[in-house]
Amino acid sequence: MSKIKGKVLIDRERCKGCDLCVAACPVHILALADQVNARGYHFSTVQQPDSCIGCASCALVCPDSCITVYRQKVEA
Amino acid sequence: MKEEVKLMKGNEVVAEAAIRCGCDAYFGYPITPQSEVLETLMQLRPWETTGMVVLQAESEVAAINMVYGGAACGKKVMTSSSSPGISLMCEGLSYLAGAELPCVVVNVSRGGPGLGTIQPSQADYFQAVKGGGHGDYHLIVLAPNSVQEMYDFVSLGFELAFRYLNPVMILSDGVIGQMMEKVVLSEAVPRWTDEQIVAQSGSWAVYGKPETRTRNIVTSLELEADRQEKVNLKLIEKYRRVAANEVRYETFQCEDADYVLVAYGSSARICSKVVEMAREEGHKVGLLRPITLYPFPSGAIRELADRVKGFLSVEMNAGQMVEDVRLATEHRAPVAHYGRMGGVVHSPSEVYEALKREFINQ
Amino acid sequence: MAAEVEMKPENLVYAKPRLITDKTMHYCPGCSHGVVHKLIAEVIDEMGLEHDTIGISPVGCAVLAYDYIDVDWVESAHGRATALATAIKRLRPDKMVFTYQGDGDLAAIGTGETIHAGNRGENITVIFINNAIYGMTGGQMAPTTLLGMKTATTPYGRDPRLNGYPYKIGEVMSLLDGVCYVTRQSVHTPAAVRKAKKAIRKAFENSMAGRGLSLVEIVATCNSGWKLSPVEANRWMEEHMMEFYPLGDLKDTEKK
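Predict the joint structure of the above. Result:
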């Protein structure tokens, strides 16, 4: 069996913690961190990486170009 | 286009000069007494010959900002207007000076303030020389006194504008703009290529970042105070170079003069007659005609100040250049002003009477 | 078959656009400007126009747009971007020339230049960010501010008797014969982002084909000015802005 899976990388230092990616994620796997980055923002993080479908919704709505998305067919 | 000798209006020769010196674009808006510049260009249709762009803008504000855009993309661009229109252009002139862009702006000035009059005046001296727009900046200001100089200064203006990357103003007036004189129209030269512009003034223009360089940004914005101060210091250094190298003036019978008239543009033509009238009556009078109003020929006036009995600054205004004449003399000789206003052009005998009243009969 | 997603180029679905610079944008968190910048950068790259584009930035929050998209830029005086663009495009007709302007810059102080550039049919693209407020100066009323909307200069809400009515510049521009394309888009959802990108591409193609002026209005948020979180601002925009500024094409002379 195989399924489409995604992988999201977030540039936490570039992130301003606006929360738009969190709201845009259809599978609700993102959340803002409790910690802050060097500029004091609660950056976005992937909470359930295994559930990512690689749709890139988060990256599309990110105003600061912090998000890189990969997608691949992998073994289920 | 070969060299030609013609009888033409001052305003018309600006159009001829633009085409023949390889100007890339003219953007303008009608206003009396300079509308013939745009009319002549539209009549001559240079876009069919040299490829020069000519566009009637919706306002002077738009026209000067088209000049800003055209200059930013590395082209020889110009506009012309008259006093109220130049007031509207002053914001743009400040931006052009701040972004260090070359252009030529012709002011065929008329009487003010406000809507004023459409008759000739020299009341825009302060505006041209002292700023007009906001911030610490200077235009290079050329003052033609003939139709021939109106023609010649367009090409000279572009030469100076590109040498110093600074806007140049030709401060003329309704007399020069409207009068007809013989003029020698020089043989046309081709428009510059991008390579020629880069070779003479560097790679600052925006025309689509080529693979050979990083992106160019034309801006007059610096948010950090110490960086903006560096911009100001760089401009001041440039104005010093301009003052050291580009002062232009003409003297007429100043060698033995007891009294010197200082006048530019059409007023200087009137004053040369005054010199003749005074000399016929045995009074040693001379004339100093600033050709560049910025930089001002302060050194020449300072030299004369040690040996003359007085200067009369003759301007068609309430007394503007007289301040610079007075500063230049360093109080070594008395300075007075005479001038008619509101579009009234003073006669030689009026000026002569003023000279007698202020100095000769004292 | 791999067990995990491998970070290989062939698996890449989204990354920071190549023409977006590494400089951190000065915009507030969640500001729509950043998304629109990305779309412009992507379209320029996809159309192969990196070396043939000249952008004109406004006065307003996007004044520093030239720091973020890696093409040649000129910074304009307030409201005059389309006058600059007119000259640049006429002098360099083979280049892609676009302006990037907010509602204060374009629809207040620059209304005259915008309308006349449209009326002359200049072959340029105008990217118009409409967030119904002056962001940079601290949230004052814009011509586009909705009735009843509170801003720093309409503290009791915009009252038409005092401040007139919100200005639909897109509709006004669509009446002009020199304007070939007017569309109103937004970037608040992934689907909206995709549509907005298509609109920007179409506008740039119009400019290169010499069809006249294209205006892409982006109904956007200013969460700082609106005093809402970015997510709440998107919701408020959907509920209020889009009722008055409905999305979709207002004019497309290419459509039969």
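The beta strands of chain C are 12-14, 53-57, 72-75, 96-102, 125-130, 133-134, 140-141, 179-186, 213-219, 248-252.
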